[in-house]
Design goal:
heterotrimer; A alpha/beta; B mainly alpha; C mainly alpha; A: alpha/beta; eight-stranded mixed sheet; C: mainly alpha; MetI-like fold; 2 domains; globular
Chain lengths: 359, 263, 329
């Protein structure tokens, strides 16, 4: 019988166990039944909560379509779409012209929801939110304003006693669409920022410490006194951090809110091109919050698989119409009506073999 | 001096208990049966890590099947078979492999497996984890095999057993607890890895149905929840960490039991 | 069963086995070839990795040349890249981690093997190994929420008051920086080193201990003999730990501050190569950016090579002086 050494027997048992687990994996679960259409998406982490909600709700309505979305970051989504390892990508910032050329086909941008980048801080003894002018923010991040009781901060906040402490600047250490939106805003209102640092997902920050991800910055600001940082609105709200009011182009200090963000998008409607790639920071309009942005889903204009393409455009159509009501509950700003119309045109332009998938 | 070493041990155990109790304190609230068998749901609707647990087990199984035999074989080669400069070069390369950031391994497997196949898969994830596992297992196996006294080898050879018999039947069982330590360290290490899986196994909302598709895993799920803004998801991340540690503990105990010295 | 019985195992071929194996045994031939193939596979994998890294890094190498290694600026927007701050951060955080971890790990291993009774040693050893199973992202979160505040409020002020004259301990105390990164790495590396050293010490034959004691050594002198005996194994353990420290990504990136700068103070933020790749790779657009990041990875390979080489030299030195490891039964 068993004359094999014990070590070999152990290995044999182990392999048998592995086969068992493997077969369980291949037969068990039940989701992804045969005949269903499967879609894979990847991209921005900012809209992940609302996309997960959309996918779940859509899955309830259409159980034979299973769509998966993984938040690996805007850049990750773009890369995977380019390599065609996913069916759709998601990105906070729209693609630049030269990036679009490197794709094997034309890429369509569908805006889904809107978000805001807010200034949050950790300062003791304040009753009301702080107010900032845009140039003050730029100079804080350039390292020119070093103390909390600087005259220019005091000018924005009359009657508030500010401590004489050093400002601890917190920025993002990882590449991120949030940084891109923030630097886009700073470059528009500060010529010095535009020249010295520029706009991008991973700027070379003149001062400050880096936190990883929105939650890293949130954690830093929450736990370290005298800090200032920029995060997505939903992070500040969920973690009950104070949020500053920012002065917009027309001169009013605007409290970041979902409505203020939608107002910013609406203010830009006239100048939004048909391909919907637009930056809406520093928006005009009295109600507009100046650091707002769209987030997009990216798909190839020409879909290779008819069934997948149809499922995709149907989902996108549902998203920009029925999906928007879920956005507000999760603190994402819905699209203004005019943009929904423009997005409809874009969705209808997606084809398979020359024929539109949705007319 | 005894006090000093005892103090070191106390501090290490203390650190573990501090971290574990922090994890438990944060996560125990979310731990219930539903959490363990359900798949993830949108925020506010509960949900669970059932698919992630199964996914982690599958990935662990694939990487162990690839990594353990290869790693132990390399260790055996370096200790028993290899001689001279080539063995020295192999040893050097294995040492270097231990220092590669797991994310670089992940990117490598992405370029070599995912891109040609044009999709993410559990298989690619298993391969990436195996590549991380192999150097750890190889080095510890080599060290443990070297520590087996020569008299054991000589005795077996003198009795006429061929080398492969001596190695498989005498030396490896003699070094088995040590090799098991290496295997345990490797398994513990890869069960906590996130970065390589992000590029290979990717992640999924669903239960796994094939090795050729993206698959969920506890670490990626923990990572996604931990970096989200929601307290509910944070609590789930901590609870999932507890589950992960129990899993690794379970594997640890069972392997120790199987490889215990019987004399 | 006895290892030397050949129940039911016969090999029928007679011609080629004599050619392939010195003992003339087919089983041996198959065994040796199989092992050799696996070793070759290992080499092939490493070579493939280095080659893949090198080809992707080529653009950056051509652009910056040698200057990449000593340049200090990292600016993705302007396309100006330099590796020195990352090399500094990687090496320094690993040095700090090992400096803290090695004494602790040795202490733990000695305690568990030489001094503790088995009913304590087994469960406690288990617990220490469990530290290796905590996911690195959890270490990072624990670091931000527990370790950093503790350092900021209690430890760093003490260090600054006591040793503030050293540039190492000057600077603003935020709890996030090189020191925190080093400490987290030390905690992550300790279970690896201590577990392996434990097994190494346990495998040193009892005869060595008895011989030392018989010659009149005190308990601690005997332990020194045991340590020297196991020196190559201990070195192997340290190299494993070092490997983890150099390549650790998630936990470090959450607590080290991620600022590409070289500062003499341990309290200031720093940046490691692994963190840089993790933070920026997925979002990196533009071929030069990606290429520069890949070149960083290649440099890490190089750093690992060099450090391993130094470690090997040290071990060879130690074993040479003491006449090698005594493994006679």
């Amino acid at each position: 019988m068993c004359a094999l050494p014990r070590s070999v027997r152990v290995v044999a048992w182990f392999t048998a166990l592995v086969m068992l687990v493997g077969s369980l994996a291949c037969n068990g679960g039940g989701t992804g039944p045969n005949g269903s259409t499967k879609l894979q998406g990847a991209g921005a982490s900012f809209p992940n909560p609302v996309y997960q909600k959309w996918l779940s709700e859509y899955g309830n309505i259409h159980p034979n379509i299973s769509i998966d979305y993984q938040s690996v970051g805007s850049g990750g989504g773009i890369k995977q779409l380019k390599e065609q390892t996913v069916d759709f990508g998601a990105s906070d910032a729209p693609l630049k012209d030269e990036d679009m050329k490197s794709f094997s086909g034309e890429v369509v941008h569908i805006p889904t929801v809107l978000g805001a980048v807010v200034m949050t801080y950790n300062l003791a003894g304040l009753n009301n939110p702080l107010r900032f002018s845009p140039d003050v923010i730029a100079d804080v991040y350039l390292g020119k304003i070093k103390k909390w009781n600087d005259a220019r901060i005091a000018a924005d906040n009359p009657g508030v006693t500010l401590p004489a402490n050093d400002i601890v600047v917190v920025h993002r250490s990882d590449s991120s669409g949030t940084s891109a939106v923030f630097t886009d805003f700073l470059a528009k209102i500060s010529g010095e920022w535009k020249e010295k640092v520029g706009v991008g997902v991973s700027p070379s920050w003149p001062v400050g410490i880096g936190g990883k991800g929105n939650e890293g910055v949130t954690g830093q600001v929450k736990n370290t006194p005298n800090t200032i940082g920029y995060v997505e609105l939903v992070y500040a709200v969920q973690n009950k951090l104070p949020v500053a009011q920012v002065k917009n182009q027309t001169g009013s200090y605007v409290q970041p809110s979902i409505d203020a963000v939608t107002a910013a998008a609406a203010a830009f409607v006239a100048s939004t091109p048909d391909d919907l790639r637009v930056s809406i920071t520093n928006a005009p309009g009295a109600q507009s919050y100046p650091i707002s942005s769209y987030t997009y889903i990216l798909v190839y204009k020409d879909q290779k698989d008819a069934a997948k393409g149809k499922a995709l455009v149907d989902f996108l159509w549902w998203g920009i119409h029925d999906g928007e009501k879920f956005a507000k509950e999760l603190q994402y700003a819905p699209l203004p009506a005019e943009i929904v119309q423009k997005a409809e045109v874009k969705i209808k332009s997606v084809t398979h073999g020359g024929t539109a998938l949705r007319s | 001096m005894t006090a000093l070493t005892a103090l070191c041990t106390l501090l290490a155990v203390g650190a573990l208990l501090i971290i574990l109790s922090y994890i438990a304190w944060q996560g125990i609230g979310s731990l219930n049966l539903q959490f363990l068998i359900d798949r993830p749901r949108p925020v506010g609707e509960g949900g669970g890590i059932g698919n992630a647990i199964l996914g982690s087990l599958v990935l662990l199984a694939i990487s162990s099947v690839i990594g353990l035999p290869l790693g132990i074989s390399v260790g055996v080669y370096l200790s028993e078979v290899g001689t001279g400069r080539f063995a020295g070069a192999v040893r050097f390369m294995v040492d270097t492999l231990t220092g590669i950031p797991s994310i670089v391994t992940g990117v490598f497997v992405y370029a070599v497996l995912v891109l040609p196949m044009k999709h993410f898969s559990a298989f690619a994830g298993g391969v990436a984890l195996a590549l991380i596992m192999i150097p750890i297992v190889a080095r510890t196996t080599e060290e443990m095999l070297k520590l087996v006294p020569h008299s054991l080898r000589e005795g077996a050879l003198a009795l006429g057993a061929p080398q492969w018999r001596v190695t498989l039947g005498v030396i490896i069982p003699a070094a088995a607890p040590g090799i098991a330590t290496g295997a345990m360290l490797a398994i513990a290490r890869i069960s906590g890895e996130t970065a390589p899986l992000l590029f290979t196994a990717f992640g999924s909302r669903f239960f796994p149905s094939s090795l050729n598709e993206p698959i969920a895993s506890l670490t990626v799920q923990i990572y996604n929840y931990a970096i989200s803004p929601y307290d509910e998801w944070h609590a789930q991340a901590w609870a999932a960490t507890l589950v992960l540690m129990v899993l690794v503990l379970g594997i640890n105990i069972s392997v120790r039991f199987v490889t215990r010295k019987r004399f | 069963m006895s290892a030397v019985e050949h129940n039911g195992l016969r090999f029928g071929f007679s011609n080629w086995r004599r050619v392939l194996s010195p003992t003339g045994n087919t089983g041996d031939a198959i065994f040796r070839i199989a092992m050799l193939l696996v070793a070759l596979l290992m080499v092939a994998i490493v070579v493939a990795m280095v080659w893949a890294l090198a080809t992707d890094a080529l653009m950056s190498i051509r652009q910056f040349g040698f200057g990449f290694l000593i340049a200090r600026k990292w600016d993705p927007i302007k396309g100006d890249f330099g590796a020195l701050p990352f090399v500094y951060g990687t090496v320094m955080s690993s040095v700090i981690a090992l400096a803290i971890s090695i004494p602790f790990s040795l202490g733990i291993a000695i305690f568990l093997v030489e001094q503790a009774p088995p009913y304590i040693a087994r469960p406690v050893g288990f617990l220490v190994e469990l530290l290796a199973a905590i996911p690195s992202v959890v270490y990072g979160l624990w670091g931000i929420f527990v370790l950093a505040p503790v350092l900021r409020e209690h430890v760093q002020p003490i260090l600054q008051t006591a040793f503030g004259w050293l540039p190492l301990f000057q600077g603003s105390m935020t709890g996030i920086g090189l020191l925190t990164g080093g400490i987290i790495l030390a905690i992550m590396v300790t279970p690896i080193i201590s577990a392996v050293v434990r097994d190494v010490l346990a495998a040193v034959p009892g005869s060595q201990r008895e011989a030392a004691l018989a010659l009149g050594a005190t308990k601690w002198e005997m332990i020194r003999v045991v340590l020297v005996n196991g020196a190559p194994g201990i070195a192997g353990a340290i190299i494993l730990g070092l490997g983890r420290a150099l390549g650790e990504t998630m936990a470090v990136t959450m607590v080290i501050g991620n600022r590409a700068q070289i500062s003499p103070s341990l309290f200031d933020p720093a940046y490691t190569i692994a963190s840089a790749i993790a933070n920026e790779f997925t979002e990196a657009t533009g071929d030069l950016y990606v290429s520069a990041l890949v070149e960083l990875g290649l440099i890490l390979f190089l750093v690992t090579f060099i450090v391993n080489g130094i470690a090997r030299l040290l071990v060879w030195n130690v074993t040479r002086k003491t006449g090698g490891v005594g493994r006679a039964a």
